[in-house]
Each structure stands twice: as structure tokens, then as C-alpha cells.
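User: C-alpha cells in, sequence out, please.
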């Protein structure tokens, strides 16, 4: 059975920055509290009201396709992880299919909050492994600013907007997504949710007055679960694959809080220099954090690197994925795209 390997990475980040100093003007908070409690310094915000998650996804998708040197009509499937779809339906995947001209693809959205990208990645991988598809695009994207309450200091300091995309193709040489372990537990769903706008509480004057169309989080309670479960998922996948800390080139953690990331790395026996961290620059972009990390670190990655991707999010959802990286990122950084594509086969 082939594995699904990542053969290209793309991203989109809005230019507008929301700094801790900006937030000090909006709610009762301060830079020192935000930095020490979360590790965040600034986030990107998509200000243009006419642009949303599909726009960012399409831009990330186009970069990945350009890097691989293929056109959108070669895609078989587009999966988009998001909790901020442009609309409840049609799916964001449909909007992106049209925007990039993926005339031969089908697609759908995955809703699993901050674990969404990992869940979508596993789904995409299964289509490659089964031989059903040759080229699958997996995107993690969220316009969190559309559901964040900028009057709630407990949550508004945490989130930012962004999108990341990866292309999956078949590999028969031991590279790619080698294992994944995922979990869902709905018994604590109320600790992190958006109560309004679904079929249970459709939009009404009352839901708007109650601010039900904003994300709600019991931060302290979620933190306890996140620390324990992100670390245990990472450990689970390492034990299952007989991996020790020294075998790991990089931990690629969901970026919700620097303290959760550090706890996960400690449990894995991985030092800080082997952890991808960009929460300081982008905050928590929900489904986009992990592909944004892969994009930022692409030039450092070498063929054969062992990566552990780990996430925890609303649902609760959590999991970890073991990836053996399939190409030398430095070649992509040197824009030697044709050569990289040739080595990928
Ligand atoms: N500025 C200043 N003070 C603040 C702020 C702020 N922005 N926010 C909260 N405080 C105060 C609180 O009111 C509280 O004051 P009190 O002690 O007088 O009541 C104090 O700071 C401590 O508040 P806590 O909520 O206990 O702070 P904590 O250290 O837990 O940090 C945080 C809060 C950052 C939200 C943390 O709990 C966290 O990271 N939780 C997990 C987030 C997560 O992983 N979510 C899952 C993924 S996201 C997704 O799926 C969409």
C-alpha cells in the first residue's frame, strides 16, 4: 500500500496586524499578561469584509500548486478544515474549487476546530493510500476574526486569521503520513463552542443580543484538557512507532498557547529548538496553525525528517500524526522547483 506524502505547501496570511498594544486600546488587558500567559505578540486579521476563508484558502492552494508545478485541474479532491466557512453551505471547498479552477475535483469541509487540519489530513491520506486518488489538496483555514468577540478579553487576545495548504500524492518508498491517532469526546463540548447560528439556535434578535454568534471558551478548564491530551496523543503515536525524542526532527504542534506547546515537547523528550513555534506572530489560527508552521519551516526540512504533528481543539477533538518528510525544503527555498518536482517523481 502506498503512503500519502506531502509534496508542496502553500499559505496565505493577511497583511493587517493586530498587536498586543492595539488590544490594550480595545479591552482591559496588557502586553505582559498576553505574552506570559499565551506567548502571543501579534496576529493577522483579514479586514476586507468581502473576503473570507475561501479567499485565503484559494491563495494558499495556488501557492502549493505553483510550487509543485501542476495546474488545478489535476486535483482529484479538495478537503478544507474550518470552523469559519464563508457560509454554512455551499461548502468552502466548493467555493475554492471554483476560485482555483479545479474542474476535475470533488470536495468537502471538515469541522473539528483546532484539530481540523489533522483530521482532514488523515481523510485525504486514506484516498491516496487506497489508490482511489492521485492528488488531494488539504487546507486548514480560518477567519477567526469573524467569530471573535472583541469585547471579551478572555478570548479576543488569542485568535488570528490565516490559511495553509498541502498537496498529497502517493509514495512507495517509506515517506509520507505513516501513522495517525485521533480522538473525539463530546462530553465537554460546551467548554469551547459557538452557541448561535446552527440549527439548534438559529440567528434571531435574541441570539444577537446574547452575543451567541461569538466563540465562547472556559479557558482554564480547556487548558487542563489541552495540556494533557495533546501531549498524550503525541506520546501515543511515538510509542506505537517506537520513536524516542532523539528520533524526532520537529514537533509541529497546534499553536493555542506556548505553555501547552512546551508541556507537549517536555513529555515527548524534545528540546525547544526542535519545536515549530509561530504563535508569537500569528496567534491561534485554529485549523491553519499546523500547515502555517510547515510553510514557515519548509526550507529547514530535509528528506527523511521525522515529524510529529499534534493538536487539541473544541469538540473536544485531539490527535497526532507521524510524518516522514518527503523532500529537501532548501531546494524549494532556492526556487529550484522543477528539480524538486523531478525528485518527487
Ligand atoms: N488580560 C488580562 N487579564 C486577563 C485576560 C487578559 N486578556 N484574560 C483573562 N484575564 C484574567 C482573568 O480574568 C483571571 O483573573 P482572576 O484571577 O482575577 O479571575 C486571570 O487573568 C487568570 O485567568 P485564566 O483564565 O485562569 O488564565 P489562564 O492562565 O488559564 O490563561 C488562556 C487563559 C490563555 C485562555 C488559557 O487558559 C488557555 O490557553 N486555554 C486553552 C486554550 C486552548 O487550548 N484552546 C483549544 C484550542 S482553540 C479551538 O479549538 C478553537
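Assistant: Sequence out:
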Amino acid at each position: 500500500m502506498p503512503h500519502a506524502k506531502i509534496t508542496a505547501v502553500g499559505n496565505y496570511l493577511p497583511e493587517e496586524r493586530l498587536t498586543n498594544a492595539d488590544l490594550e486600546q480595545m479591552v482591559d488587558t496588557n502586553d505582559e499578561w498576553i505574552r506570559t500567559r499565551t506567548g502571543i505578540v501579534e496576529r493577522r486579521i483579514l479586514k476586507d469584509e468581502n473576503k473570507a476563508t475561501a479567499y485565503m484558502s484559494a491563495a494558499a492552494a495556488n501557492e502549493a500548486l505553483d510550487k509543485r508545478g501542476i495546474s488545478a485541474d489535476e486535483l482529484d479532491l479538495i478537503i478544507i478544515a474550518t470552523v469559519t466557512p464563508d457560509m454554512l453551505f455551499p461548502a468552502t471547498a466548493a467555493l475554492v474549487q471554483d476560485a482555483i479552477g479545479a474542474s476535475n475535483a470533488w470536495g468537502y469541509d471538515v469541522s473539528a476546530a483546532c484539530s481540523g487540519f489533522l483530521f482532514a489530513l488523515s481523510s485525504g491520506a486514506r484516498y491516496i493510500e487506497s489508490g482511489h486518488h492521485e492528488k488531494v489538496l488539504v487546507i486548514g483555514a480560518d477567519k477567526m476574526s469573524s467569530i471573535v468577540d472583541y469585547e471579551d478579553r478572555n478570548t479576543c487576545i488569542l485568535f488570528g486569521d490565516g490559511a495553509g495548504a498541502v498537496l498529497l500524492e502517493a509514495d512507495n518508498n517509506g515517506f509520507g503520513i505513516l501513522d495517525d491517532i485521533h480522538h473525539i469526546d463530546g462530553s465537554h463540548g460546551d467548554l469551547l463552542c459557538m452557541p448561535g447560528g446552527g440549527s439548534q439556535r438559529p440567528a434571531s434578535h435574541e441570539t444577537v443580543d446574547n452575543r451567541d454568534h461569538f466563540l465562547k471558551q472556559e479557558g482554564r478548564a480547556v487548558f487542563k484538557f489541552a495540556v494533557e491530551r495533546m501531549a498524550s496523543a503525541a506520546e501515543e503515536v511515538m510509542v506505537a512507532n517506537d520513536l524516542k525524542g532523539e528520533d524526532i526532527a520537529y514537533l509541529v504542534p497546534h499553536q493555542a498557547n506556548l505553555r501547552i506547546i512546551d508541556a507537549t515537547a517536555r513529555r515527548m523528550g524534545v528540546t525547544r529548538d526542535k519545536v515549530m513555534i509561530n504563535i508569537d506572530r500569528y496567534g491561534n489560527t485554529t485549523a491553519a496553525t499546523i500547515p502555517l508552521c510547515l510553510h514557515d519551516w519548509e526550507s529547514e526540512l530535509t528528506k527523511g525528517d521525522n515529524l510529529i504533528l499534534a493538536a487539541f481543539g473544541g469538540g473536544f477533538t485531539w490527535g497526532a500524526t507521524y510524518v516522514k518528510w518527503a523532500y529537501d525544503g532548501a531546494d524549494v527555498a532556492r526556487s529550484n522547483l522543477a528539480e524538486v518536482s523531478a525528485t518527487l517523481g
